[in-house]
Structures are given as structure tokens and as C-alpha cells.
What we know:
The protein is of the alpha+beta class.
Amino acid sequence: MDKVRLNTLLRTIGLFVTLSLSAYLLIKEMYTYSLMLGLINIYQIYQIYIKQLKLYKEVDQFSKALHYRDFSRNYNTHSVSELQPLYTNLNDISRIFQQVSREKETQYQYMQKILELVNTGILSFESDSGEVIWMNEALKTMLDRPYLKNIQSLSKRDQNLYLDISSLRPGDSKIATILTRKMSVKTLLSATAFQTNGIKYQLIAFQNINEALDETESKAWQKLLSVLTHEIMNSIAPISSLADTIKNRLGALDKRLDTENNLFDLELGISTIKKRSEGLLKFAETYRNLNKITKPNLQTLYVRDLFENLHSLMQPTLIQKTIELEIILKDPNLMFEADLALVEQVLINLLVNAIEALKGVSKPRIILYGEKTNEKTIIKIIDNGVGIEEEVLDKIFIPFFSTRKTGSGIGLTLCKQIMMLHGGSIQVLSKADVGTSFILLF
């Protein structure tokens, strides 16, 4: 720095001396010498201009490099140039910015990796424009979309979800349903907001609560069914026994004395009571079976073997009803851990339901589909049957509920409980007069 100051001082003094001497010679009318000193003055001024211009260019280029986050330039600090101290300072500043930038990038990557590992979906977007800034892999999986430019694009695919997100205020929470081509997922939406550089952003967390809701609902139904079956059996059993006793005693009476057939009518009524009582007892015993399954016997199963066994078992029925069965398996070696007997029970039940839904349908067709996505084994039973009405779609897994007159309302409830015992879930997508897809996730 002292060298720079000395050079600047000497240049300034030299320029002052030559200018003063040129003026003196000009006054003395010594034009030849005055002209020679004038040329020297012009040279000195040019040199000062060149130095200043080079200094300006170096600072300008450095500021542009900072603007575009380019810290790759390195200035030669070993040169004999007067700008050597400046080069040293610029290199120091560049190194500081590089370090800060690396630290910020490390923190950003670290936070990104953490957010990618969590199962909660994260969405960040500008509050005013709706432009999506970032979304993690969990949310991409939930939405079944690899990219989302603006939240308004959700309105074309899932209008209800878009309205739920748009109406959510910072600090609020709301339960919403995400509909995709593969499944429907109930999520808890939680919102927060922040502002940076004068721009407002909104952060939405999508927490999958399907399993939590299913588990809570299942436990509630199990408790209710336990109480109902206990009360029904305790109340009906004595009635059935008493009706049987009365019927036996009526049979011992002399019916010839009954000229108006009163005994016959009484016996018929008591038989009816006994029959209905036994029916109620059998009904209660059937629902009691829901609570008997406690722990699955896990083993490694190949999906292809499950589909082949199911096809062999149901083939006579399928041929009789002229139903086409198609098996789609992307990976022939696809396997998972499950209880063979319980999983077969689920698949048979769903296949029987699909066959029932195909009554009266031209070109009836069922598809058995298997794949692995995000470490989950997915099995689908798809039909092109009559479908399920939207108003009853949420009720089909409720015990006692059935869309068929002869249905007991136990099949799908049992399927759901079996899937929960495996740590999985069962979902349904259906549209009236188009078809139904039951999705099993292990």
C-alpha cells in the first residue's frame, strides 16, 4: 500500500512540475521546449487515464462476478503492477464470499435432504402469484406429479384440493383428500407463511393420515361390534331356547281338541320366533369373527403365484360368466411379506365382488395388476363393471353396510382389517358405469 501511495504522489508531483514548467516556457515564448513538455504532459495524463480505466474495469468485472455468483476468478498478486494490493483485497473478498456461499449451499442441501427423507409432503409457493418454489419427493408421490409450476394448475386435476389449499390461512389446519390416478389419500393440511425480500411465501405441510384414521376407525368399530355381538347373543339365546321348549310342549298336546287350529297357529308363530332367533345368533357370530384375527403369519410371497392360484380357483366361474381376466405384472419376481391365507381371502373377496359388479355388462373384464412403487407393493383388482355411486363410496368399508340385497356387509370390513394387520391399507377408486379399482398397499 505504501508503494501505491508513493507512486501516486510522484506521478502527481511530476505532472504538476511539467505543467508548471510548460506554462513558464510558454510565457517566455520558448515554444519548442514548451511543445516538448506538452507532449510529456499528454503522456502522463494518458497514463493516469489508463490506470484509472483499468482500475474501474477490474472493480466492475468483480462486481458483476459477485452478482452472478462467479467466484472462480483469481487475480495475480505476484505482479509488479500498482494494482497488486487491489488484487490481493479482491481475492480475499472472493474467498470470503466463496466460503459463505459454500456454507449456505451446505445448509440448503442439508435441509433439502432432511425434507426429502420425511414422509410429510412440503409445498412452498408465492402467496400472490401462486408460483411453486419447491416441493419435496413425498409430495410428488402423493400428488403423483413430478413437477408443479403453479398451484392453479391443480384446479384442472383436483379442484377440491386446489380450493382447500387456496382457502387455507397461515396457522390453520384442514383435512383434505388427494385424488390421483392410482389412489385417494386423506391428508392433514397445515399452513404457515413467511416473507423475504418483500415477497410473501406460503408453506403447506401435507401429512398422510389415512393409516391413523383407519386404525382409529377400526378400533372404534371393533369395540362397537364386540358390545353388539355380546348383547345380541345374550339377549337372543334365551329367547331361542324358550321358543324351542314351548314348541316341544305344544307338540305333546292333543291337537284333536283344537278344533279352530289355534295350537297350529301358535306353533307356527313360535317356530318363526325360533328361526329368526337362530338367524340373529348366526349373524352375531359372523361379526364376532372380525375380532378373531390378531396377528398374521408372515412369509415371503410371490405376486405371480398369488395371481396364478387365484386364476385357477376362479377360472370355472369366469368361463361360465364369459369374463375376461387379464394379469399385468411388471416384475415377474415381485414379492412381499404377508400371510398367505389372509391375503388370498382378501383377493378372493374382491374378485367375487368384481364378478358381481359385472352382471349385465357387455365385454366384462377384470385386471389383476401388481407393481412396486416407493418400496411399497401395490396390488390392484380392476373391473369395468357398474361402479359404485359416489355418495356410498365412503361407506363401503363400514360394518353392516352393503350395496347388495344379499350382502352381509362383512367382506370389505374384513379385507380392511386384514390389510391393517399387515401394516398396509386398502383404497378404492370408482366411477358409476365406468368401473372400480380396489388398491392394496403392502
